[in-house]
Amino acid sequence: MAAMTEERATQYREKLTATPQALSGIREKIRSHLGIWGLMHIADEVEFGANELLTNVSQHTGSDECELALVLKDTSLRVSVSDTSTALPKPRAQSLVEVRGRGLTTIAAMAVAWGAEVNSETNGKDVWFELSVMEGELAA
Predict the structure, then answer these.
(1) Could you tell me which residues are beta bridge partners of residue 70?
(2) 3-132, superfamily in CATH?
(3) In 10 A of CB 78, how many CB atoms?
(4) What residues have CB less than 8 Å from 81, skipping those under 6 apart?
(5) Could you tell me if residue 43 is left (phi over 0), alpha (psi between -120 and 50 degrees) or otherwise beta?
(6) pTM of the predicted model over 0.70
(7) pLDDT tops 70 at residue 134
(8) Would you place residue 59 in the very low, low, confident or very high pLDDT band (cuts 50, 70, 90)?
(9) DSSP of 58-113, one letter per residue?
């Protein structure tokens, strides 16, 4: 079962197990918070990116345990996923025949910034991306 905490009105964090069943509920919570914050114009991008990072947890880390965070800043929204692996992700070279492996490349194209770093406090890593909250200012 997921444990949820809300810190201030500009943050949402939830510890969860990144399973397909949990992802459906998370998408609803993401849209709910974006609606409260007046950010529905970036809902599709946030939902896609968060889903991609959460799916990567279960496919590449050996554990489904993670934490999702949405942090609203002055001009951007940071979406991050923390997990228990220290292996940093790398975007793959694109292939015309591969049906998987495009998620990080797509996130990099739509975000104003993205990254991954080892988190010594959790003995894992944080993978994140930021989107502009200004209407019409998604990365081109």
Answers:
(1) 12, 79
(2) Histidine kinase-like ATPase, C-terminal domain (3.30.565.10)
(3) 17
(4) 50, 53, 54, 56, 57, 66, 67, 68, 69, 126, 127, 128
(5) alpha
(6) yes
(7) yes
(8) confident
(9) HHHSS--EEEEEEEE-SSEEEEEEEES--PPP-PPPP-SS-SS--HHHHHHHHSSE
